[in-house]
Structures
1.
Amino acid sequence: MATAHWSAVAAPEHVARYVWVVTRHEIDYRGNVGVGQTVTAETFLPAAPRGARFDRCVVFRDAANKRIVAARSTWAMLDRASGRLVRVPPEVAAPFLP
């Protein structure tokens, strides 16, 4: 979901220049999803990037709007050509911030 969000929202030149890797996941399970059950998912950035890193949150809710899974992942941005960490430029982060 995070990579689909990046591909859909980021400028094409940013998608071509940068790649993201996950450095940490935290997941809280508060319920189960049964076979055939429908859930909705929301992804958002709770704060601006810090250097090369930013956190992305994902929340899954059941049909009653109860939060059943909440995840927070830390991502780091790499320059695609060199493979090195790079600071997230403001123009890359802007479309994803509230």
Note: Helices lie at 2-9, 12-17, 90-93.
2.
Amino acid sequence: MATQRTSFTKLQRDRAKKAKAAAKRERRLERAAEAKNGTDTDTDQFETSPEGPISAAELLHEIEVTHQRFEAKLMTYEEFEEKKAELLARLPID
């Protein structure tokens, strides 16, 4: 018996998946290039002292920025874990 060829819809899904992955990879590279050039303004907006008061929303944003820096390979795993632990310790728990 001959094997069944893949359907056109499956080929479309595969192409869409590859295009989405390529776009994501391109955005990640652009973000990394911006961070290296120092043009990323979002990361500097919430830089405060470790003891200063900061809202939960700002802390969560700072954690998100830390994750983005790690994904862009701008910090090591150890630095990432240290920064994340510091930020999570400052998170107010009601």
Note: The mean pLDDT is 78.
3.
Amino acid sequence: MKVSSGDFLKAYGRICEAALREPVSITSHGRERLVLLPADEYRRLKQNDRAALYPWELADRDLRALEISDAPSEAVAFDQEVASK
């Protein structure tokens, strides 16, 4: 569902109820600015946040764990991406 910011302000209750069923895009001047979704869905999405780190930012125990780990057998599908040319 997509609504303008003006319509959102006029029909806050109805649009909030709709957002419990599906994400609602709120637009301003025709451009999507916000997405309204249930708090449970937001928390679920936030659990998937990940931070990229440089190797030197890893703790020693994490580096050791990487050194002794084995890639899963499915990873062979990506070998061509690191193969020397």
Note: The longest strand covers residues 31-36.
4.
Amino acid sequence: MVAVTAGKAGVGMTAQAHDTITPGTAARPVRRASADVIQLTRRDIDGLLLCGEHYGAPYDLLAAALRVPPGRLPAILRRWRRTGYVSTGRLGLGPGTGWPLPG
């Protein structure tokens, strides 16, 4: 720390010297406290209720009910799986299916 006097005589102000960052060593961004918490949207709740009411839902029906393109559905299901809300798999020759986990 470097002590600096400014203004009226006898009043001291403190300034801190900052370290310089060398190229190639970027600081890591601060992670928010709720990073592991999923924030459910109305769409998430509707999809989870559909899976629960029917004991599972095929991907094509789920994508249509959520009004999302079929290519977007795997990311939504990964998020639900990661938080433990659903499990997914293929039951027979048809499209994949998502079903709710107990608990």
Note: The two ends are 55 Å apart (CA to CA).
